[in-house]
Write a structure and sequence with these properties.
This protein has about 475 residues and is mostly helical. It has helices spanning about 1-20, 30-65, 70-95, 105-125, 130-165, 170-200, 205-230, 250-255, 260-290, 295-310, 315-320, 325-345, 350-385, 390-415, 430-455, 460-470, and strands at about 475, 480. Helices cover about 80% and strands about 0% of the residues. A two-stranded antiparallel sheet has the order 1-2. β1 (about 475) and β2 form a beta hairpin.
Amino acid sequence: MESTTAKTAVASSETKKHDDELMNDSSKRIPIRQRIAYGFGDFGNGFMFDLGQSYLTKFWIDGVGIGAGVVGGIFAFTKIFDAFMDPIAGSVVDNRKKIGKRGKFRPVMMVSAVILGILTVVTFMMPDGLSMTQKILYAYAAYMIWGLVYSFTNDPYGSLASVMSRNVQDRSFMATTRQIGSVGAQFIAGVAFIPLTVLIGGSDQRLGYFWASAIFAAFGVLMFGICYLGTKENVHVNRNQNAQKEGFKDYFKVIFRNGPLGALILMTIFTISAMNTNNQMMVFYAEYNLGNIGLQPIINAIMMGCSIVGVFMIPTLTKHFGQKRTAMVSFVIGACANLLNFILPDHVVVFVILVTIGYTALAIPNGITWAMVSNAIDYGEWRSGVRKEGITYAAFNFSRKIAQSIAALVSSGILALTGYVANAHQSAGALRGIKAAMTLYPGICLVMAAIIIGFLYKLDDKRFGEIANDLDHGRWEGGKIGQ
């Protein structure tokens, strides 16, 4: 009897030991070379994405001869199309069953990046002998296909961070390197692309754009290569090989059952529309409200430089204050700076100081958001027992693209409603409208973002630590993962 009892006790002890077996250790940091290599992905991303955002309009209008209104329609339609491609791409990535030693996300990211590089060049070319209708159809088709492949590049890249490390500081560091990579690509594209087109093509814009885009695309693919070779999917994940394939119903389940993700989606609609509206209105504000369009690149350079410094501070700030508190305080500071800029009279020095504070205060939480998305992926696994990185990141990315569309509508809508007239002396109403779009709208958006992150985002660092510990031991809210 005693022998049986002893055996039972030993078996119980072994079972408990097995239940508490450590699958991952979130307290350990991954090598710094991996954290830095991750940022090269967004560096490469920017070499291809920012070209389309900044220069396709000019290429299609001036280089190809498509009307400005038609080009606007191309961008409006393809952005919406692109937004709906993200959940499809996320589902396809999540449904991958044959996962080799290279991981689930890195191979998809790298193959898609190569195709994206080719398509980037395709968007900046136009075959000879096409009628205007054929040129328009070519532009639509090229940019829609580009957007589809971009989703298959960006979704696995964004998801990769969540399986590289579960450590909070690692994720903050990777969010920083990613943001630096993005800003660095924007800076290089903004400074070097047009001079390169002139150097190569001279007066032949189509030739210059083609070869300049080819050079940028090649560097973009190279940067993704560094990311691919320098990173590793370190987090051990229990994946069900017999799970049913996901569809749109799973996409909406992920959104509505993941509270932190829902908060991030809602917050991002305000933050990204605020940032894009700021960027789009700067040239109008400099030219008409400040009376000197030459101030625009100077102001942008000051804002960009200070925002880079702010992004470098993310690991230190989150280590001492946590992700949520750092984001909240940044939003409040940014809101105050923008609202003060709206209330105070137009003055170059005052405007530059306040707009720089507001932009930097927005850049910091935008960087932190990448780490928060990875945490939301883990939260979703803890709640459901099933990990869905691709479709979770796709839901977040969808909100960013909707926010970009909202920013375009706000900017053009306010100009139209307040009586803006192109290349003319503006009325007092138009000047107030420009100032409101430049300062008041971002200020209100950041107030909303602070409220959302404060009251709806419940996944602070302490709570995430508890969830990470459960996942490290193979547990979800309802028991053992995979059982």
